[in-house]
Specification:
single chain, mainly alpha, about 60% helix
């Protein structure tokens, strides 16, 4: 049961970080990334604990995934981020409903 809870927590963290705007990330506030997610400081240049906590290996993984998604046509929209997150965790998604209902459909799926 502990493994399942941990898996759920990690999945939630990945999806929530994936759909967060670059400007709302702690790494942006610390000047580590710009408004497009481009890295401005290398890990070796991070000095304070807050800077190091806002750009961990986890963040690097999710930021790279987010930048890859944004390179796809329409990938820079908020809906595309939600859709990408869903496609990563859900085996079957009603794409027509996703396009029509957007975030409300995403919330419904995440609650399941």
């Amino acid at each position: 049961m502990a493994n399942r809870a941990f898996d759920t927590f990690v999945t939630y963290k990945i999806i929530s970080t994936l759909v967060t705007d670059w400007e709302d990330m702690p790494a942006f506030e610390h000047g580590i990334i710009d408004k497009k997610g481009k890295l401005l400081k290398k890990t070796s240049q991070l000095k304070t604990k807050d800077e190091k906590d806002s750009f961990t290996l986890f963040h690097r993984l999710v930021f790279n995934l987010k930048r890859l998604i944004q390179k796809l046509p329409g990938g820079s929209s908020k809906l595309a981020s939600y859709a990408a997150g869903l496609f990563l965790i859900k085996e079957e998604i009603d794409t027509e409903r996703l396009l029509n209902e957007g975030e409300s459909y995403v919330r419904e799926i995440l609650q399941d």
